[in-house]
Amino acid sequence: MALRKFTLFPYCQLNAVSCLLNRQLPKGVRCVSTVLVPGEPSGPCVKTTIPGPKSLQMIADLDKIQFAGSIFYFTDIKNSLGNYIVDADGNSILDLLTQISSLPLGYNHPDLLKVLQDPDNHIAFINRPALAIFPTQGWPEKLTSSLLSVAPKGHTQVTTMACGACSNENAFKSTFMWYRNKQRGGAPITDEEHSSCLVNKGPGSTPFTIMSFKGSFHGQTLACLTTTHSRSVFKLDFPALDWPIASFPRYKYPLEDHIKENEAEDRRCLAEVEEQFEIYNKAGKFVAGVVVEPIQAEGGDVHASPEFFRELQRITKKNGAALILDEVQTGGGATGKYWCHEHFNLPDPVDIVTFSKKMLTGGFYSLPEFRPQQGLKIFNTWMGDPTKVLLLEKVLQVVKRDNLLKMVELSGKKLMDGLKDLSRRFPQHMQNVRGIGTFCAFDSGSQQKRDETFFRLQQHGIQPGPCGEQTIRLRPSLVFQPKHADIFLDILEKVLKEIQTP
Amino acid sequence: MALRKFTLFPYCQLNAVSCLLNRQLPKGVRCVSTVLVPGEPSGPCVKTTIPGPKSLQMIADLDKIQFAGSIFYFTDIKNSLGNYIVDADGNSILDLLTQISSLPLGYNHPDLLKVLQDPDNHIAFINRPALAIFPTQGWPEKLTSSLLSVAPKGHTQVTTMACGACSNENAFKSTFMWYRNKQRGGAPITDEEHSSCLVNKGPGSTPFTIMSFKGSFHGQTLACLTTTHSRSVFKLDFPALDWPIASFPRYKYPLEDHIKENEAEDRRCLAEVEEQFEIYNKAGKFVAGVVVEPIQAEGGDVHASPEFFRELQRITKKNGAALILDEVQTGGGATGKYWCHEHFNLPDPVDIVTFSKKMLTGGFYSLPEFRPQQGLKIFNTWMGDPTKVLLLEKVLQVVKRDNLLKMVELSGKKLMDGLKDLSRRFPQHMQNVRGIGTFCAFDSGSQQKRDETFFRLQQHGIQPGPCGEQTIRLRPSLVFQPKHADIFLDILEKVLKEIQTP
To answer: With CB atoms counted within 10 Å of each terminal CB, which end of chain B scores lower, N or C?
Structure first.
C-alpha cells in the first residue's frame, strides 16, 4: 500500500478580513476571527492512503458482526478536534461532512466537554426517563431555553424524538390526526372507528396520504421511505404506499442567466402539485400534508426558489393540507439561519418543521392546532433523550457567544466565491455551484468524475460528502472558518489540476 | 388537596431465605441477598396525593409547550435511588414500572455513575458518530463485549438502532430484502426495478407483507403501527397497510385447570396463521415474515405456550417466511433469561430478535442470511448511539457480578406466590395471575376496577404499570429483590382490602 506524504498549508493564522466585523458585534459577542477551537491543527496531515491499513483491518473485524460495506474509515475520536477528524491510521482530515452534517461544533469542543465534566449533569445520562409519562423536573424550562429559544417564526410548541425518521413519522401522524379532526367537524368518534382501526380497516384507519417530491429524502422507516425518492438503493425491495409525488424544480445554473427557464420550471412543478391534489383528493385518498426539504440534500443539493416555496404554501393551504418542512439536514445553522426556510420569507408560519442532526435531538415544531387531543397518540417509550437537549442547550449558547451564524455567513461567502471561481476555471469538472451559508455543493459532470474528485480530496486530507448522482456536498460544522475554506479551496484546486492533467 | 400520611413498613432487612443460595454460586458472583443499591430507602414514603401540587404545576407548564396529558408526575431524579423513584413533591415510590420497563438497574446505580465519572468516557458523549460511515475505533470489540455477549442462541450478527420502533422497522426491511433475494434466485436487479421503486411502484417496490397478531404492540411508526393491534388510541386516524393478522391465544387460568381448552386455543390460532399465509400468498401479497412478542405486553401481558411458539416457527419456516421475535419489552433479563424466547426451547434459532428498553440501545440480532447485500439499505444517520452501548456494557457486568438473573428468578417466585395467594383471597379483584421471572401481571375484572387498584397503589407509594383493558403489569428493574416484593405484596393486600370494604 503506497504511503502518501502531504505538505501542510500555512493556514493557521487568523483571517484578518473577518475581523473588520468586530465593531458591529453586540456586546459580549466574540469577534468571528477568534480561534474557535484552541489547539486545532493548522491543516490536514495525511500519512497513509485513506482508508489506511488499520481502518481496513477494523472494517474486516466489524464485518464479522454486521455488514460493514458503507464504512469510509474508523476514527480516533480522542485525537479529533474542531474541524479535524483523525482516523485510526493517524490521518488528520479537514472534515466537511461532520458525521453526515450532525456535529454542530466539530469534535471535542471544550464547552461540550464541560457539560460532561459537571458532576451535576451525570445523573441525566444514567437515568433516561420515559418523557411522556415521568419527565424530570426542570424539563419545560430546558425545552424553553434550548429548542424553543430558536423556534421558527410563530412556533411555541415542540415535541422531541430520537431521530430524524421518527420526527417525520410523527409529523405525518400529527398531520393525519389534524386532518381527520377537521373532517369530523366535532362529531364524536364512533365505536366502528375504534374497532375497525384495530384490524387496519376504515373508517378508523384512514386513506390519507402525504405528498412528496421526486428526488427527496425524508428517512428510511416505512412512511418516510414512501416519501423518499432520491436513490433506488434506499427503496428497492421494500413495500411503499400509494401516496402522491410531484416534481421538484431542477434549475439551470448560473441562476442569473436562466431566470425565465427557472420560473417556468417552478410553474411546471407547482402545476404538478395542484394536479396531484386533484387526483388524490378526488379518489378519496385525501392529501393531508405535503412534505418538502428546503434544499433536497441527499438527492443532490437541489435548490428551489423562495417563490416556489411561497406558492407551495399557498396551494397547500388552499387544499386544506398541512405544509411540513423537513429541516433535518438544513436546520441547525448551516445556512446562516437556524432554519433554512427563514430565507424564503413565507407569508405564514410553516405548519410543522422537523429537525434532528445538528440539533442533536430529533423532534418537530408544530402549530397549536396540530396538538393531539389525547395521550399516547404521538408517543413512544423515550420520546427523545434529555441528555441531547442538555448538550444542545450548550451548543446554542456557544453559537450565540461566538457569533457562529455570522461565521457561517462569512465562511459561506468565502466558499461560494472560491467554488464559483474554480467552476469558471475547471468547467469540465465543476458545474452548478450552489449554496446558502456553508451548505454548499457543486456537480462534477458525471458520477465517475464525482467519485474521482471525492476520492482525491479524501487522499489529500479533505472529507467531503457525496450526494445525488454526481454532486459533492459540503457540510462543515458551525466552527468552520474562512481559514478552513481557504485550505479546502486550495486543495480542491490542486485536485482539479491533477484530474485535468493526470 | 388532601395530604395522606403513609406508614413505612419495616422491610429494610436482608432477605435471609435467599442467602441459602450462597453455596451454589460460582466464584466471584455475589450472594443474591447483598444490598444491591446502597442507601436505598427501606420502603415507600408518601407525603402528598400523587401527582402532588408541584407535579401538577409542572404538568401545566409543560402543557403550554406540548400536549402533557399522558404524564403521571414529574420526577426528582437526583433523589431517586435503586427501586425508588422520588417525584417532584418528595414522594418516594417503589417503582414497578421503571420508565416503561427501560431501567435495568433502577435509579442512580453507583456502577453506572462510575461510567460517567471516568473522564476517558466523556468524549464518547460529545462526539456522536454516524456509525455506518465513521465508526470509532474499538466499536467491534464493544459490540462483542456487550450485545454479542448475551446474544440469543445461534446469533453472531447485531445491528444497533436508536429505539424499539426503528429496530422493528429495520427488522421488517431486512426480512423483505431476504425474501426478495430468495425470489430472485440470483438473477440480477433490473433497470425497471431501480426506476419503478423511485416512484413507489412494482416491481422495485414489493407487495410483501408482515403477519402480526391481534393484541400485539410493535411500535408506532407506520410499518410498526400496521402490526400493532393492542389499543385503538395508537391507531385511530392513521393509514395502515393491508397486512395479514392472526389471533393470538387467550388462555383460561389457572393454566393447570384448563389444559385441553388452552391446547385447542393454540390450534385455533395456528390454523389462522396457516390460513393467512394461504390467503395473502395466493393474492401475491407474499408474507415475508411473522412478527410476534414472546409475551404481548402492552396488549395486556398475554402469554402463549412454548408449544405455540415452536409450532409457529415450524409453520413460518414451511411457508418460506422469517420469524421475528420482538423482545423490546420482554428482553433484557426480566424473565430470568436475557431473552424470553429462551424459555420456549425452540428447535432452531429465531431469524431476527429485536430489542430496546432495558438494553438501553435499540437494535436487532439476525441470522447471517439477513445481512444486506449492499450499504445504505439498513441505514440512518446515527445507527444507534455508542454511549448507550457503553452503559449497557457496564449493566451486563453488574448483572453477572451481582447474579441478577438469579435474583429475578427469586423475586419473581416471591411475587408469583404472593399474587396467586392474593388472587385466591380476593377473586373479585384479582384474576389470571401470570408471569415469568418478575415479568408478572394480573387482571382486575374490569377497567374501572383496574384503574382503582392502580390509583390506590400509587397513592400508597407503589408505581405499577397498566396494560391492556384491565391488567396491572409489573416491570421492576433487575435490582428488585424479594424484600421489595414483600413490600409490594403487603401494600397490594392493603389496597385490595380497602377496595373490598371501602
So the answer is: C
Strand partners, A466: A472
Q: What is the ipTM of this complex?
A: 0.94
The pLDDT of residue B33 is above 70: no
Q: What is the pLDDT of residue A34?
A: 73
Q: Where are the beta strands (DSSP E) in A60-157?
A: 84-86, 92-95
Q: How far is CA B407 from CA B34, B93, B426, B488, in A?
A: 10, 21, 28, 16
CB within 8 Å: B69 and A374: yes
| CATH annotation of B129-184+192-384 | 3.40.640.10
> CB of A392 within 8 A of CB of A406?
no
Q: Tell me if B221 and A169 make a contact (CB, 8 A cut-off).
A: yes
The ranges assigned to domains in chain A are 17-112+401-500, 161-179+216-245+322-330+368-381, 249-283
Q: What is the pLDDT of residue A84?
A: 98
- Specify the pLDDT at position B110: 98
Taking CA atoms, B210 is separated from A238, A263, B220, B247, B330, in Å, by 11, 45, 15, 14, 21
- Domain A17-112+401-500: which CATH class? alpha beta
User: Across the interface, which of B54, B134, B237 has its CB nearest the CB of A73?
Assistant: B134
| Most A-contacting residue of B67, B84, B113, B199 (CB-CB within 10 A), to test interface | B67
Q: Which residues of chain B are within 8 Å of residue A141 when distances are taken between CB atoms?
A: 61
| d(C-alpha B462, C-alpha B440), whole Å | 15
Distance from CA of A461 to the nearest CA of B (A): 15
Separation between Cα atoms, residue A225 and residue A220, nearest integer Å: 5
B269 vs A255: CA distance, rounded Å: 63
Hey, what's the torsion of the CAs at A311, A314, A319, A325, to 10 degrees?
Answer: 80
Three-class SS of B364-403: EEECHHHCCCCCCCCCCCCCCCHHHHHHHHHHHHHHHHCC
Q: Which residues contact A416 (CB under 8 A, 6 or more apart)?
A: A433, A435, A440
For position B45, what pLDDT does the model report? 97
Residues B329 and B438: beta-carbon distance below 8 Å: no
Partner residue facing A176 (CB), from B69, B112, B238: B238
Q: Is the pLDDT of residue B16 over 80?
A: no
pLDDT of residue B34: 74
Give per-residue pLDDT as tens, B133-188: 999 999 999 999 999 999 999 999 999 999 999 999 999 999 999 999 999 999 99
CA separation for the pair A481, B487 (Å, rounded): 61
pLDDT in tens, B177-223: 999 999 999 999 999 999 999 999 999 999 999 999 999 999 999 99
Q: What percent of chain B stands above pLDDT 70? A: 93
| Regions of chain A with pLDDT less than 50 | 1-24
Q: Which residues of B touch A112 (CB under 8 A)?
A: 126
Query: What pLDDT does B431 receive?
Result: 97
Q: Are A323 and A279 in contact (CB under 8 A)?
A: no
Does residue B347 have a cis bond before it (omega within 30 degrees)? no
| Residue A317: partners with Cβ closer than 8 Å, 6 or more residues away | A323, A348
